[in-house]
Amino acid sequence: MSEQETQTEDFYLSRASLLQKQDPKSNAALADYTTVIHLNPNNTTAYNKRGVIYYFQRKLELALADFNQAISLDPSDPTVITNRANVYALQGKYDLAFDEYNHAITFDSNYTLAYFNRGRVYSILGKIELALADFNHSLTLDPTHAPTYGERAILYAYQRKYDLALADYNTAIGYKPKDAVYLSNRGSAYTNLEQYDLALADLNTALALAPQLGAAYFNRGLLYRKMQRYQDALDSFQQCKQLSPHSDYLEKQIAELKLLI
């Protein structure tokens, strides 16, 4: 490859990375990565990053093809192996996903995202202690990774350890103060701790940041119901119903509130 072609390849790769950072589903970045691959069919970075875009676009077979190609070029890259594991997990192929996460860890025992993502799959499967072990280890490797605090907090809340959940949400929000999901979940933790004013403040802030976040309306509905503000609770649940898939529990809440008003 000539020096000019190398410079052109680097230009498209750099531009694609910037576009992808702005929008994980960017078609413009996708096109640039494809151009890089045409210029250099052995560019593992381009295959991997294009595969990540396909993953976020939920074009899983295309993502898998790119990750497979990247791994054929560099079989020992834990980042790509973990990305392929994430595709398997989303496809419900959990045994393959675990094999890949474990494989990634054999190449780099300090690769945080392998532990984090394996923990998420354990969580999906209800293997709470294994999930917590992975999240805890992930945080020893990278104590600034907000998503790990967020995921661990969900498990603590499931275990009704609301003080621990609250502490993790506080840390996650410290790193990402405008993350509506963390704020909504912390609002739920405050509700369970009967700190209703703080809960309402978080939930209102979450909805100001993300007006289409159905979970925040649902959490606010539960809060209002505990506060005996039944009409407000019903209004929040109705707004949740417009945004979120059907839920028997949501329908039950709505039906009960109609009897209370």
Task: Offer a quick outline of the entry.
The chain is an all-alpha fold and 261 residues long. 80% of the residues lie in helices and 0% in strands. The mean pLDDT is 96.
Element-by-element helix/strand order? HHHHHHHHHHHHHHH
Strand percentage lies at under 5%
Spans of at least 5 consecutive residues with low confidence? none
What would the average pLDDT be, to the nearest integer?
96
Largest sheet: none
Number of strands: 0
Indicate the radius of gyration in whole angstroms. 22 Å
Total helical elements: 15
How far do the termini sit from each other? 74 Å
The 3D shape can be described as elongated
Structural class: mainly alpha
- Helical content stands at over 70%
